[in-house]
């Protein structure tokens, strides 16, 4: 198992065109999927087995499921699971040519916190999850569900951000009196792992208590680059979970706050 701690470097200025190498990492980035999957495979060996089936929990629009099959051509069945039907609809239409046989993919609606839609797969041998667990409010329940679904001797690998400077920005906005009235509860937006600064020791203990035997459990610091501050600001605006409910007068202040939080993050490095 591996978790990921995301954070950032470098300095941004108010000039939206200034070139920079840094900040705030996209939640759905899959560019770290390949090294993670290779490391997971070294422990679980799903890629080397002919006819293996792998479940991808929180598959989103299918990027992680397709990446999995492209990296390990021996896999002959990928079950992508997501709670959002709209993501699954895109995933079903998205099969890229490099993934080989599109018939091996099955995209299923399911909830890893409650098990809804998933009990039919009880006894599965391999489960992976890429950047989904950071979105979960009830992580412990979800880990327990993965344990329930696995067959004896089966394995799971999880990659997710435990802390992100992006969440500092959201927390900063949520704490502001003018913003609070337009937003949902903070706990719905900021993951517990970020708020409580969980590290690998927390997850090692939690997973051992659930009944997992830990192969690897580690946090790593990673950095993302944006071509310029304007690009970063656009990403932050697009990904704000409550943007529809904010009046434009408040929304227009987000880019500057995003830049400031990024600068604070960079100056800590
Ligand atoms: C950041 S996306 C990651 C998508 C994909 N794994 C990737 O790497 O591109 C996280 C996904 O987890 C899904 N998700 C959130 N809560 C879930 C739950 N309880 N059960 C299943 N999927 C969930 C979201 O709908 C979202 O599509």
Strand proportion, as a percent range, falls in 5-15%
Instruction: Tell me which ligands are bound.
Output: S-adenosylmethionine
Structural class: alpha/beta
Number of strands: 7
Mean pLDDT comes to 81
Give helix and strand order, one letter per element, not per position: EHEHEHEEHEHHHHHEHHH
Q: With helices defined by DSSP (H or I, 4 residues minimum), what is the helix count?
A: 12
GO molecular function: methyltransferase activity
Organism: Argiope bruennichi (Wasp spider)
Domain Methyltransferase: 54-154
Protein name: Juvenile hormone acid O-methyltransferase like protein
Model description:
- Pfam families: Methyltransf_25.
- It comes from Argiope bruennichi.
- InterPro entries: Methyltransf_25, SAM-dependent_MTases_sf.
- This is Juvenile hormone acid O-methyltransferase like protein.
- Keywords: Methyltransferase, Transferase.
- The protein is of the alpha/beta class.
- A five-stranded parallel sheet has the order 4-3-2-5-6.
- Strand 5, helix 4 and strand 6 form a beta-alpha-beta unit.
- Helix 1 crosses helix 2 and helix 10 crosses helix 12.
- The radius of gyration is 19 Å and the shape is globular.
- The two termini are 27 Å apart.
- The N terminus is likely disordered.
């Amino acid at each position: 198992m591996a978790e990921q701690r995301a954070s950032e470097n470098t300095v941004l200025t108010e000039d939206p065109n200034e070139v920079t190498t840094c900040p705030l990492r996209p939640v759905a980035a899959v560019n770290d999927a390949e090294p993670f999957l290779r490391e997971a495979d070294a422990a679980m060996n799903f890629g080397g087995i002919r006819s293996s089936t792998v479940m991808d929990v929180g598959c989103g629009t299918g990027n992680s499921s397709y990446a999995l099959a492209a990296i390990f051509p021996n896999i002959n069945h990928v079950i992508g699971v997501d709670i959002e039907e709209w993501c699954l609809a895109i995933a079903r239409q998205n099969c890229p040519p490099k993934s080989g046989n599109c018939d091996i993919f099955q995209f299923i609606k399911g909830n890893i916190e409650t098990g809804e839609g998933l009990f039919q797969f009880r006894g599965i041998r391999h489960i992976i999850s890429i950047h989904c667990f950071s979105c979960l409010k009830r992580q412990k329940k979800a880990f327990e569900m993965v344990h329930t679904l696995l067959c004896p001797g089966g394995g799971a690998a999880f990659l997710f951000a435990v802390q992100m400077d992006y969440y500092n920005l959201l927390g900063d906005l949520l704490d502001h009196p003018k913003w609070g009235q337009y937003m949902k509860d903070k706990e719905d937006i900021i993951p517990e792992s970020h708020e409580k600064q969980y590290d690998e020791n927390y997850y090692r203990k939690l997973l051992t208590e659930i009944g997992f035997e830990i192969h690897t459990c580690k946090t790593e610091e990673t950095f993302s680059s944006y071509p310029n501050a304007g690009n970063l600001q656009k990403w932050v605006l697009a990904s704000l979970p409550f943007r529809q409910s904010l009046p434009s007068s408040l929304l227009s202040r987000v880019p500057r706050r995003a830049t400031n939080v990024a600068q604070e993050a960079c100056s800590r490095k």
